[in-house]
Amino acid sequence: MNMKTSGRIPGFLALCVLLVLAPLGGDYLLGIVSEILIFAIFAMSLNLIVGYTGLLSFGHAAFFGVATYVVIGLGVHLGISGWLGAIAGVLASTALAAFIGMFCIRVKGIPFLMLTMAFSQLLFATALKWRSVTGGTDGLIGFMPPDFFGWNMGSDAIARYIVIVIGFLSVLIFLWYLVRSPLGSIFIGIRDNEQRMRAIGYPVQRFKLIAFTIAGCLAGIGGSLYALFNSYVSSDILHWHLSGDAMIMVILGGSGTVFGPAFGAALFLLLKNFISSYNEYWAFWVGVIFIFCVMFLREGVWGLVMKHFGRLFSNKDNSQSRNRSHSESKRQSHSHSHSHSESEKRVVAGAATGEQL
Amino acid sequence: MDFLVSQLLNSLVFGMLLFMMSAGLSLIFGLMNVVNLAHGSFFMIGSFTAFTLAQWSGNFWIALAAGWVPAAAAAVLMERIFIRPLYSRSHLDQVLLTFGFIFVFGDICKYLWGPDIRNIPPPEALEGAIIVAGAVLPKYRLFLVAFGVAVAVLLWLFLERSRIGAMVRAGVDDAATAAGIGINVPFLFGCIFALGAALAAVGGIVAGPVLGTYLGMDIEILIPAFIVTVVGGMGSLKGALVAGLLVGAIDTFGKAYFPDYALFLIYLLMVVVLLKRPQGLFGVVKG
Amino acid sequence: MTLLRTENLCKSFGNLEVTHNVSLAVAPGERHVIIGPNGAGKTSLVHQLTGQLRPSSGRILFKDTDITALEPERICQMGVGRTFQKNTLFLTLSVAENVRLAVQAKQGGWYQALRSTDSMASHWESTYQLLEQVQLSEVAHHRVSNLSYGEQRQLEVAIALAAEPDLLLLDEPTSGMSPAETNRMIDLVRSLSKSLAILMIEHDMKVVFSLADTITVLYYGKVLASGSPDEIKGNEKVREVYLGGRH
Lengths: 357, 287, 247
Hints:
By secondary structure, chain A is mainly alpha-helical. Chain A has helices at residues 3-21, 27-50, 61-78, 82-104, 109-129, 131-134, 157-179, 182-192, 194-199, 204-230, 240-253, 260-276, 282-296, 300-313, 318-332, 342-353, and strands at residues 147-148, 151-152.
């Protein structure tokens, strides 16, 4: 596409290689990777509002869980195919996010945090009590996953995996483009200085709602995939535990990049699995690392990796652009504005958003 | 009729517990603008500590008198070492920080006390019940309500009559100005954070004989406590009491008469208050 | 026609009255400066004009439309650009992106979700022009937080200009600036298009008298006097209250 993205291709290819190799590790590993990818989608979706729009939400599980419920519920109660159910699930999450968002964006900061949590808990309470539809804590069983090009997703781990990978890569690529787009720049502007955004003419509330809705939609994709992967749902999925876990993934990985939270999801789930095999105190260690990140590593583990090793992935890194472009801009200030080269502008844009991956 | 009376007692009991939790949360937020998501952890730590003390000493009152100390100490350390360096950062960073502590404290309790449910036995003097209007009212629960009232009165006296209390009220009003007139704000913050934790811990101790002492009680009390704090108003002691009793009533009577909707109702209450009156019933509107 | 007009504008916070019956007018292309001692309610007035603060009573008319109750973004879209007394910039973004965001607000393309901002050529063209105008081209790619205070004040102006306003509101543009920086700012304001009306709050008398067509003096929220620089210089009340003493 242009010189900046060409730097990202090696990183992306490396990721693809890893994803392709995963099935070689056997069904168990594949299951773990699948779960990581699903939660990566969930965490990345949360980061759109937390890291890129500056809205701290503790109720994101609502949009993930509702999608899962719609898929499983439609399948178990009405025999609707998982594919149709998944589409319905994503639509439901999107609509719900738009609805809840309308109320939540009326307040800011701590009240916003509490309100998102309250709405999510409302849904949890509903799921808990409305046993006839949701099965309560026991959940809904008997969901039949659909086929994927002839392979049944219920019995074939690789079929499930491929669907999930497609979902993950789609969300990753979409977000990658979104945060570099004009719409994304508006979200970032809101995060950075909401007052300024209004003073230059942006209807900030509208864009907060757009961000919230997109984030809900993406979480719904994760939730639908989770339904197809797990073939089961219970009210646990709407508990704010899940919202909290997503927040941890975002902070661990780093809220400054699109990929960070995905990395955080991997880190969180791997840590949990790894430590659990030794003792039961994984929560303690996750808590410690989380606190460490909030205090000293605000850019997250992936942010740290990018800072030090990012140059390996790119010949024209954002951190270098400042030096190079400084001399270029000296030359440019003597010339007419029309002669600005395309690359000059792109370098500026890169430094502008501070976005690395 | 007797059912009504005993439910009334239960609602007062729950209301008092919520008040003690919410009072601490409210003071901490009112003064420091920090939402302590780990507040439930202090509740739990107090309960577990009291259990151990009660076991060693065989005496409930000793457990009550001293059981809140580790929680308060943990709060002091938490504030000094972790929260204080973050004062210059956004408030949301501080909230995130306290969130991490839920996990840390939770597992520390699991490590020290194991996963089983513990039971703090009520003192002998308060065992049994009295009969009022045909209702069987456990003496311990009556004590709990009286205890809650006593705590409320003591807190009120502290805030209204003592020097530190005056400083707290000044700080809640405007921390920057308070610092400007010479109040040692960091020291004050530490005190209030510890006080809030102590309140929560004491709540956990007296709750022990009624609710039991178990892992997960931190999370279970947290959301209702937040609902109370939001409804009553961040920074308001009166709000904590009124809202505590209100939510206690809705929850108890809701569970008794509309079991399927009770939970839904209190969350709905929180949503409505946040939207219509974000500062709560008695809260201060902060700039 | 008057571009901006306020009619008996009043604003109180409880018992504190910050704006009392302020009626003033700004014509197209006029350079109108508001002066007054600290606490006179100058910034509160600007906040009311731009919709950040709702007046207690009175009206504000811009291009003969009542904007009293409008949101800041609507007022900006109608043709008002403003700078803030305290730098209100996008600190984590580059200088150029700060301006581009403002240009984008004006030029559109808001809902493009899959196109890169790099490719929005017209945005960048206008951005570089504006940076050139405020003499910040050299630091276009620097993070705003790395800029000097004076450079940040200049950036504030560039952002306000990006909206291609008919009325520019400058809230103490030279506050905290060195004499050299102040001169640069004066030159910049002088160089702005004659069709652009400017309403400015200032403390620095040198700036005021070198730029103003009209001066309005605010004192404890009230208009003490309003007129040409000569009229104001000669006004007894103003002398007493403001110009006579040190400020």
